[in-house]
Design brief:
It is a single chain. With about 140 residues, the protein is mostly helical. It has two domains: about 30 residues; about 100 residues, Cytochrome Bc1 Complex, Chain D, domain 2 (Orthogonal Bundle), CATH 1.10.760.10. Helices cover about 55% and strands about 0% of the residues. The chain is built from seven helices and no strands.
Length: about 140
């Protein structure tokens, strides 16, 4: 009888240890809700003039690379937005639009899951053009 009690106790302890180890190895700390760029990036200025040419180029790049998640109007409601574990940023919101061009450039360059880095896919010029275009999405029409 005592052997059965020890056996049950041992199983409970082993189960607890296994559960704890499983939790520790599967635990991923949540991403900070606010994604901030380093101050050196925030201070960068956009070298690309906002004109019809840069806006047209930015829109084409946005449509190809950003629309699926962020949506046609930048509201974070693109066709693939429901397939990812974090809601895409709404570019029309004041909090987004208050970010500096340099901060946005850094975020587009570096990425943060689920958003990919565009460091290798887009040139510096293209990333600045996208920023010029994204700025138009925050304007009241």
């Amino acid at each position: 009888m005592q052997f059965d009690k020890l056996n049950s106790k041992g199983l409970v302890i082993i189960g607890t240890v296994i559960a704890t180890i499983t939790f520790l190895f599967s635990f991923r700390p949540p991403q900070a809700s606010i994604w901030t760029a380093p101050s050196s990036a925030v201070k960068m200025t956009n070298p690309v003039v906002v004109d019809a040419k840069s806006l047209e180029a930015g829109k084409a790049i946005y449509t190809k690379n950003c629309n699926d998640c962020h949506g046609k109007k930048g509201k974070g409601d693109g066709p693939k937005s429901g397939d990812i574990d974090k809601s895409p940023q709404d570019f029309t919101k004041e909090a987004f639009q208050k970010q500096t061009d340099g901060g946005l450039f850094w975020k587009i360059t570096e990425g943060r899951k689920p958003m990919p880095s565009f460091k290798k896919d887009l040139t510096d010029l293209q990333r600045w053009q996208v920023i010029n275009y994204v700025r138009t999405l925050g304007k009241k029409n």
